[in-house]
Amino acid sequence: MLSSLMQKYRHKIKTVDELIQIIGLRPRKKKVILCHGVFDVVHPGHLRHLIYAKSKAKILVTSLTADVHISKGHHRPHVPQNLRALNLAAFEIVDYVVIDTEATPLKNLASLQPDFFAKGYEYTSNGVPAKTQDEADILRSYGGEIIFTPGDIVYSSSKLIELAPPAIKPEKLLTVMDSEEITFDTLRDALEKLRGKRVHVVGDTIVDSYTQTTMIGGQTKTPTMSVLYEGRKDYIGGAAIVAEHLRAAGAEVVFSTVLGDDALRDFVLNGLAKSGVDCRPVIDATRPTTNKNAFIAGGYRLLKLDTLDNRSISDEIVAKLCGAIAEMPADAVVFSDFRHGVFNRRTIPKLISAIPQGAYKVADSQVASRWGNITDFKKFDLITPNEREARFALGDQDTGIRPLASALYDAAQCKTLILKLGERGVLTCRGGDHRSLDSFIVIDSFVEQAVDAVGAGDALLAYATLSKLATGSDAVATILGSMAAACECEHDGNIPITPDDVRRKIDVAERQVNYN
Questions:
Q1: What is the CATH number of the domain that holds 327?
Q2: Are 348 and 220 members of one domain?
Q3: CA atoms within 13 Å, Cβ hemisphere of 233
Q4: 289 and 268 in contact (C-beta within 8 Å)?
Q5: Nearest of 29, 32, 9, 10 to residue 20 by alpha carbon
């Protein structure tokens, strides 16, 4: 139902060239007025502005700033450009909508030559700003006119969003699916195509442990907590859980890693064998199998105790891994980097050079706190860092998400970048022209009730990789990867995500879109 309503208004959204053909050149029989803005959240102030503008001309055109040029806050715009355009198109008073790919409306003003350009009264309350003067000069050059709409109340989209961000997850999802010509059945069909893909995973194995305790007291003389041991649960993690996710999705998986000569080695090998992963470890008796043990009391993490050795693997081990990579036929090679010895600036070039010709190259580098950098993996087909890792890689704590993703995309020289934004979802950047209207895909998180976010990125990596192999679609990869990540968040500890888990997410999303 929601999809059909969106299609009802999509015909109003035009390119500049299409609009020129429709409205014609000056002088026109029907006067044209143009309104321009971000329109992140359309509020009563916007509506009054549009109504007044419509009263001055027969044809009302609204142009909105493209996502890539919006810099108000790290995560703005809240509403992606395609959905903002539909919001405006749904108004009866609006005749046409244009998404402006330029940073300012100057080029569109010169091309469209509207008879009037409507601005809010606030642009004259303290004198005419320089940017408004530039607009006025263009209008004056061909005989157009600026009209300032009256009013005494200014509604701020930014303040409204900060007060209570609108819940528009279904609408954002459906907008992406419509623009990419994807249905929920498309997603279900894609899951069926994941089976049988050959994937070689290379990376650091981690055993994630959860030690459950109960608080029983503390020392009076020192700040020492006293807890009662209740039990410990170990989970396969790191690059190993990526291999398990891939196998659970139906792929044929070979896993190359480095393990210590200890009991956790046997735990990992036994677990991977049960999962159906063909693990081919290099045993290094000089280092332990990496273990991260979180001590928990009453649902709170008191302490994390790590047993690890982050020094680089030896040249001999590098040679063994390179040989395994080169000799293993694979549709995709996934480098899962946690910076625990396998990957560093000495080893990465050698490992990359061993990847077979034609294999789909994927890298995930969860290393922002350990001096790794996702841009070490240049010219890969897919990379999946989180926001913190992106900012670390670029030394940039200030830039908004879209320009940040664009800069990282260019620095890494990748083909597809899926930027993980935690509870905010993901943003996918594709194509070198970041001003293109389809350069970004924004998907909100599908998590219904978060339990443990550890490992969510690994599930996304696995399902996004297989989806790209199976369909070639960035949108399908983003959606299915995000759904797999949400499934992982709703479990305690690392649990391999199955296609049935993801299907349930698809069913939930479809019901939400149809208001069921």
A1: 3.40.1190.20
A2: yes
A3: 10
A4: yes
A5: 32
